[in-house]
């Protein structure tokens, strides 16, 4: 039953999952700047990166790989924001989750890194560029 509730939380949580406005270097938290060199990123792009297969495919892969048993909490709503770089070849690296619960952050990072499918990279004038994505994640644990 807990897994079902978690999957519903992931599904509905991802409805608002996405980057609302483009990041600027000033928006990047210090924790993320420790793992990502912002000088190598492009912040204004012609086309944002997209997960191959679309957002629903990403939701599916994320929920399949997320291990709720790694989180030692009950009756709580946990939030984190996952930052990661989409490289010009579509690969993902420099994953960093920023939130109040260290276990939740670690599992979000592990889950994202376990998804091996690539993105269509961000582009500027049809040239692929490095781009920092930000995804908020909220889950209810019962």
Total individual domains: 1
User: What would you call the structural class?
Assistant: alpha+beta
Morphology call? globular
Distance between the termini: 9 Å
* Rg for CA atoms: 15 Å
Number of strands: 7
Helix content: 25-40%
Global mean pLDDT: 86
Strand content: 25-35%
Main traits of this protein?
single chain; 142 residues; alpha+beta; three-stranded antiparallel sheet; two-stranded antiparallel ribbon; 7 strands; globular
Description:
The chain starts with a helix and ends with a strand. The protein is built from four helices and seven strands, in the order H-H-E-H-E-E-H-E-E-E-E. It has one domain. The strands form three sheets. It has a three-stranded antiparallel beta sheet. Strands 1-4 form a two-stranded antiparallel sheet. It has 142 residues and is of the alpha+beta class. The longest helix has 13 residues, at 102-114. The relative contact order is 0.26.
Write the layout of secondary structure elements.
Elements: H1 2-13, H2 30-33, E1 50-51, H3 54-65, E2 76-86, E3 92-99, H4 102-114, E4 119-120, E5 122-124, E6 127-129, E7 131-141
Antiparallel strand pairs: 1-4, 2-3, 2-7, 5-6
């Amino acid at each position: 039953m807990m897994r079902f509730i978690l999957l519903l939380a992931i599904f509905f949580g991802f409805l608002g999952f996405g980057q609302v406005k483009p990041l600027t270097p000033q928006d990047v938290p210090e924790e993320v700047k420790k793992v990502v060199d912002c000088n190598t990123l492009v912040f204004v792009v012609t086309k944002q990166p997209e997960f191959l297969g679309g957002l629903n495919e990403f939701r599916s892969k994320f929920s399949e790989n997320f291990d709720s048993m790694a989180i030692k909490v009950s009756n709580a709503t946990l939030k984190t924001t996952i930052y990661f770089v989409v490289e010009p070849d579509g690969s993902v690296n420099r994953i960093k989750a920023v939130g109040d619960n260290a276990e939740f952050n670690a599992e979000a990072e592990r889950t994202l890194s376990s998804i091996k499918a690539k993105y269509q990279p961000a582009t500027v004038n049809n040239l692929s560029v490095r781009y920092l994505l930000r995804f908020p994640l909220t889950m209810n644990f019962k």
